[in-house]
Design brief:
The protein is mainly alpha-helical and 96 residues long. Helices cover 66% and strands 0% of the residues. The chain is built from three helices and no strands. Helix 1 packs across helix 2. The longest helix is centred in the middle third of the chain and has 30 residues, at 42-71. The mean pLDDT is 83.
């Protein structure tokens, strides 16, 4: 597939638009990155990058909890309470 074979870059159910003000340098870099990833537009690259950052943030938070638990071993009951609290926090973050 060549760079000229443009394909839709967004899911069919994407209906929200976000305005971004970028410098000429940023816009050029985003367009180049989009082409290298096989995406049709700079906007598609920004959407992909945003999703990636959110996934990495979630993984970081989950691993931080695992690390904290390893450093602070507690009884089974306390561990269960922490897991429930984290599950509620995760649900609250993911709620619209």
């Amino acid at each position: 597939m060549g760079f000229w074979d443009s394909q839709p870059s967004y899911p069919q159910n994407a209906d929200c638009r976000v305005s971004v003000k970028a410098t000429t340098y940023q816009k050029g870099r985003w367009e180049t990155a989009a082409r290298l990833k096989g995406l049709a537009t700079a906007g598609a690259f920004l959407a992909w990058a945003g999703d990636m950052v959110l996934a990495l943030q979630r993984a970081y938070e989950d691993q931080s909890h695992v690390h904290y638990d390893a450093l602070h071993p507690e009884g089974f009951a306390e561990e269960g309470k922490r897991k429930e609290e984290r599950a509620r926090e995760r649900e609250r973050r993911e709620a619209p």
